[in-house]
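User: We ran a pulldown and think these components assemble together. Before we commit to crystallization trials, I'd like a predicted model of the whole complex to look at. Sequences follow.
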Amino acid sequence: MSPNQLGFYTLLKKEVMRFWSVLAQTVTAPVLTALLYLLVFAQALQGRVVTGYDGISYTQFLLPGLVMMTVLQNAFANTSSSLAQSKVNGNIVFLLMAPIGPVEMFLAYVGAALVRALLVALAMLAVAGPLVGLPIANPFALLAMFLLAGSALAVLGMIAGIVSTKFDHLAAFSNFIITPLSFLSGVFYSVHSLPPIWFTASHLNPFFYMIDGFRYGFFGHADVSIWLSLGWTAGFFVLMAVICLWMLFTGYKLRK
Amino acid sequence: MNTPTLRAGPPALEITGVRKAYGSVQALNGLDFDIRQGEFFGLLGPNGAGKSTLISIISGLIRADEGHVRVLGHDTVTDWRAARRTLGVVPQELVFDPFFKVVDLLRIQAGYYGCGREVWPWIDEMLERLELGNKRTAMMRSLSGGMKRRVLIAQALVHKPPVVILDEPTAGVDVELRRTLWRFMRDLHAKGTTVVLTTHYLEEAQEMCERIAIVDKGRLRIVETTEGLLNRHPFRFLTLKLADGAAMPAHLAELVTSVKGDALELKLDRERHPIASVFAGLKAAGIEIADVSTREPDLEDIFVELTAKPAPGVVS
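Assistant: Here's a predicted model for the assembly, 572 residues in total across the polymer chains.
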């Protein structure tokens, strides 16, 4: 059975158009929020927090983590809100009745989420990067971490969107999973400054490796090896992708 | 009624042994029937009969527990891509994507089916035919219910499917839209599109459909040409107003099926109760008739009669 390339491209374009039509809400607002975090935390903690990175100021340390955190949150939000909204509104039937396969659907949703995540990241770096003076040590690591982490959260968002039958469920995913994992991932501090128990706990949080690996791309060194970060992030992506594709192939919570 | 324009080849829809249960509720209980290419087909049944479940199985939204469905020879499970390409479904619910303009939504829907710019003129034509021309750049959420219903119909037809299913397309819509829709569907049917209609407006089904299936409690009660269905009814209806408020004689009173004001409707078996025998009975009782009219049975009478009886094998 030949794949429906135009169907995939149309769904990708439609998902991009969906967030583009409310750009102030989907791109501008999260960028502004992240920049406010940068301003407030940098003002409050600059010079008081030991980053553990020689020659790197706290503000420089903070920015990559904030960018990745915003990438993760927006990749998740794009797929989860789109699927949940389509399910709650009922208009998902137009997609489910169309000759678009599970893999095409998967790739289109993840692709659109990456476009939104990229816009958010570029906007943050364009505004704050020159002010902070951020180096780029390894662009390939940056790109790899962006793609793997952004995709992993986009897929987690798809899972949340498929599982949720009302917006409360989606809010629970966001409030009880995404936000705690983001804030406890070493965005605002180096995990080396934590007590032993929280240091260990941080190493079980996949978001920690996503942020640490992304930081490596800028500074050339990080709290853990880039390979460990890539391995954890790729492993998390594969796990999420297997679950999500199983849901799409079996029609779990989509086709009765 | 539309003129049959049947064509050779596999059935437009082939429904074989389809069963579906929701817990202990058997929604579909072994449905078997075909819809031929080029037919205007009515799928009727009371609420909860299983019509929408069947449509959802045909369109791939629900998976049957047993049996299979083929659309123009394509199995909806093993050859789902080809089956879906040949099918257009207008859902019963008024569902829409609020983020898009009407024309963008239709182009997106066409894209899902692998159709590009080549169908844009067809989309423009549909917008005109469904009287949506001045709404093409309107946001979906700004449209009235009737307008949204028109967009749903256009969405189902963007890829020019040879088989179209309309699931109660005229529920809660005004006369103007009904006329517009039926004119449009008649034209599509005349060009060879197979149309399957579910509706609770039985006069619509009687007027539009060549063949009708009546489903009740998940079982097929009958599938027959509309004409054959009407002819198989052995009754006719006689409405009488008796002069001076006289009472109906006892031997005729048992034939009275409804009373509206001073008008009495009698259900007469064509063989056993010719109209003349009623007149003779009234005359013999010295009762004069103030007014009289007759009515042939319509689809509603057949429908009520068929769905009032327990389905074969169903314990009520």
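Residues 5-250 of chain A form one domain. That may be worth checking against your pulldown data before setting up trials.

User: Thanks, that helps.
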